[in-house]
Amino acid sequence: MPLSPLTPAQLRRVCDPASLGFDTTASLAVAPDIIGQPRGTRAIEFGIDIESPGYNIFVLGEEGTGRTTAIGRFLRQRAATRLTPQDWVYVNNFAEPHRPRALNLPAGMGTALRDDMTALVSYLRRSLPQAFEQEAYTQARNQIQDKLSADSEARFSALQSRAAAVNIAPVRVPDGWSLVPLRNGEPMAPAAYGALPEAERKTLEADRRAVEHELEDTLRQIRELEKATADSLRALDKQVAASVVDHQIDELKAKYGAHAETACYLDEVRGDLLDHVSDFLPAASDKSVPPDFRRYGVNVVVDHGRTAGAPVIVELNPTFSKLMGRIEHEARMGALVTDFTLIKTGSLHAANGGYLVLRARDVYSDSQAWDALKRSLLSGFVRTEDIAAKGGFSTTSLDPEPIPLDLKVVLVGSSGAYYFLFDADEDFANIFKVKADFSSEMPRTPENEQQYAGFVAARCAEESLRPFDCGAVAKVVEFGSRAAQDQTKLSVRFGEIADLLREANYWAGKAGHEPAIAADVQKAVEEKVYRSNETEQYMRDRILEGSIFIDTSGEVVGQVNALSVSASADYSYCLPSRITARTFVGHSGISQIERDTNMAGPIHNKGLLTLTSFFNATYASQRAVSFSAQITFEQTYGGVEGDSASCAELYALISSLSGRPVKQSLAVTGAVNQEGNVQPIGAVNEKIEGFFAVCEARGLTGEQGVLIPATNVRDLMLSEKVVAAAEAGRFHIWPISTVDEGIEILTGAKAGARKGGRYPENTVHGAVQKRLRELARGHDHERDDDRPRSARKKTARKKRVVRKRPVAKKRPARKAKR
Fold first, then answer.
1. 551 vs 499: CA distance, rounded Å
2. Distance (Å, whole) CA 416 – CA 105
3. 397 by DSSP, 3-state: which?
4. pLDDT tens digits along 675-684
């Protein structure tokens, strides 16, 4: 029974607008943000809820499914139900200024502490000078200084009296003190001292040494008095300052005292303020280096004062500095310096206590960022580092206290990125233990068609698009099946669907439609193709004008129309290609010109070898065949890849061997396996439409069509123009399951079934088998002709000799023994 072409209903699965159950999307509820991803959604929920370390999430799938946007929205919904994390601030470490301290406070209290510390410094700069200008302070300071003067004078007077008793006087000189001998109360001249008797000089020298010891002792006592006085003055200053500072610090401790680290910090602030009270006094302005009041500041690196629930950060540029934060520098007195107030927050800080969404490719392409992210997740701390110091630059740097890290990281990437990282990075599996696999398609069920309608409604509401009527939504559903290349599936690459809605809304506006209708969606599809198909149209024109040889009528031996897909950016199209085969005497077997010239890819070469295996199994199962064949894609000057032309190559070869012509009104696509079954191929819609466009331009005759694998029938979502032509009987699609079915359609002759190792002579396979025997005999004759003349004569003589078999003699019959 001859194979029938597909019916129009099989070429495109139409969505009935009435089945959607609404007039326009204005009346519909908005669909959830993640549609058709039960496996991925379940994995994300698991990853979010589990609290154990290492259960970060890798969301993998194809680009354009709206994963990043949908995940961000999904996480925000979940984050709204969680507790708001604490603020984090950096403050000065008064003991080790290069190691700033990190403090955590309830949400909103970080900025409150910063403002309170700023107010404290402002208050002290006003109030402390006033406290030190009070009369009580002046009197107390004068009393301490007067006491020092009195005690010092008394001790020095006693020294002078004892020195005068032995005729020696202490005299101050530029480099200290000198002891001068006296005569009659006056300093003795050196000449007079030298004229003294030796005994008297010895006595004076002994007295001088004694006075010198007393002078040293007196000076030591005076220094101790001065030190004690300085301590007393400092104690007085601290006492006066404490009367101003303590009240303010006590108020801050009452406000923040429930947080032990902050209370400890405030105690340190009090101690430093009392130690540096002079910085607040007017005399401090006369110093060469002005006082540094930034030491009492608070650097808020994470502020959740306005955050409701857990934070969700989507970092689109995850460099090292963006993730980990940075330490800035500024020029002070000709040098680059830094301090804790120049520590800037990173995405890990901002997302701490919540969720951080990153694109995998962007992170691992920056080795510093990837290593820093891993280090933070493995250690449980985020540490801000100075890139300048890491790069070897000589500059003042900091080593801030690391902040404990508690967050979920969601990496969004392709399947290839996931498996690459899994294999290449030994830490990856321990950090990202949850794989959320996002599919690019979902089943086309009535429920999911309703979800599609809800998605349309959501985009219209969110982007202020005009509503879509049920007919327009039905076209969007059909577009989703076309994008999925499957009648039973819908694409979930919602970025592409959203673009279609925006463009349909534009064309609806141009046409004055309110709401948007099916024609607007169709217009958007056609206009997008028109914007992208200039190259396709150029190549098709070359076919129509005859520069590229493609026949769409008649019959030719050894020539088949194949279908190949080309991709140009975001647009794929198909043009027919001519495959020819030539067979002749030889022993090289089947070869392919593109393969021999290294223009074919490995998959194409595999298809050719599979074709050869089927051919040998079909015609050389009992005896060897000896022939040569060349197959090629005519007028192809680029690379050839894929096995979808292996059926067409096989048909060209069989046609050349059998002498049976192939109908040029037909094109073929499909891959053959070793059993002669036709396997499915990709881009079946583009391939059919590409050949249809050439046939339509030349004029449809009713004899044209395409042979496709029967397993690709469910993938058909052909354009309405092709469906209409098929319905009118002007174009046909034949589904074939075996090579033999294709042979019969292409040649109009029986393929033939093998019996006893032979095919019937009136069949295509029989003709091939006969021709192979002829080529083999020709090859044997060719080998004979290549031998020396004497050898050929010897063979000829042997062939002329007729050998007679000796007649066997009859043996006498044996007598039977009784």
1. 38
2. 42
3. coil
4. 999 999 999 9
Asked if the bond preceding 515 is cis, omega within 30° of 0, the reply is: yes
Average predicted confidence (pLDDT) for the chain: 88
Beta carbons within 8 Å of 299's beta carbon, 6+ residues apart:
89, 90, 91, 100, 114, 340, 341, 342, 343
Q: Which residue, among 304, 386, 393, 305, has the nearest Cα to 340 in the 3D structure?
A: 386
pLDDT (average), residues 543-551: 94
How many CB atoms sit inside 10 A of residue 388's CB?
A: 18
Whole-angstrom distance, CA of residue 343 vs CA of residue 89: 10
Closest CA to 707 of 755, 647, 658, 650: 647
CA distance 87 to 105: 5
Per-residue pLDDT for 64 more than 50? yes
Q: H or E element: which one contains 582?
A: strand 571-584
Cβ within 8 Å of residue 324, ≥6 positions away: 346, 348, 372, 376, 382, 383, 384, 385
* Amino acid (one-letter) located at 284: A
- Asked whether 563 and 629 are in contact (CB, 8 A), the reply is no
636: helix, coil or strand? coil
Instruction: Compute the 3-state secondary structure of the chain and give helix, strand, coil in percent, each to the nearest 5.
Output: 50, 15, 30
Tokens of 131: 């406290």
Residue 386 CA to residue 321 CA, distance in Å, equals 9
With H, G, I as helix, E, B as strand and everything else as coil, classify residue 733: strand
Percent share of the chain, pLDDT over 90? 59
Buried b (16+ CB within 10 A) or exposed e, 340-379: bbbbebbbbbbbbbbbbbbbbebbbebeebbebbbebbee
Phi-psi map region of 573: left, alpha, beta (phi>0 left; psi -120 to 50 alpha) = beta
Asked if residues 9 and 723 have their Cβ atoms less than 8 Å apart, the reply is: no
Identify the helix (H) or strand (E) that includes residue 457.
helix 446-463
> Which amino acid does the sequence have at 519?
A
Q: Say how many CA atoms lie within 13 Å of 311 toward its Cβ.
A: 24
d(CA 696, CA 704): 10
pLDDT number for residue 812:
52
Using the structure block, give the residue that is written with the tokens 């999925």.
Answer: 484
Main-chain phi, psi angles of 227, to 5 degrees: -65, -45
Cβ neighbors of 603 (< 8 A, separation 6 or more) are 641, 642, 643
- Count other C-beta atoms under 10 Å from residue 669's C-beta: 30
Q: Which residue has the higher pLDDT, 471 or 69?
A: 471
Position 816 scores a pLDDT of 43
Query: Quick one: CA dihedral 360, 366, 370, 372, positive or negative?
Result: negative
**Alpha helices, H only, 304-411:** 320-324, 347-351, 360-364, 367-379, 387-390
CB 110 within 8 A of CB 303: yes
Residue 259 tokens read as: 């947080």
Provide the pLDDT confidence category of residue 89 given band limits of 50, 70 and 90: very high
User: Residue 792: its pLDDT value, please?
Assistant: 53
* Interior angle at CA 200, CA 194 and CA 202, nearest 5: 85
Neighbouring-strand partners of residue 382: 403
Find the helix or strand (DSSP H, E) in which 168 lies.
strand 168-173
C-alpha torsion 240→244→245→246, nearest 10: 90
Distance between CA 568 and CA 573 in Å, rounded?
8
Q: Where are the beta strands (DSSP E) in 334-474?
A: 335-337, 343-344, 355-359, 381-382, 403-404, 408-413, 434-437, 441-443
Model confidence pLDDT, tens digit, residues 769-804? 999 998 888 755 555 555 555 655 555 555 555 444
Q: How large is the average pLDDT for residues 434-456?
A: 92
pLDDT band at 817 (very low <50, low <70, confident <90, very high): very low
Nearest CA among 36, 30, 19 for reference residue 483: 36
DSSP SS3 for 545: helix
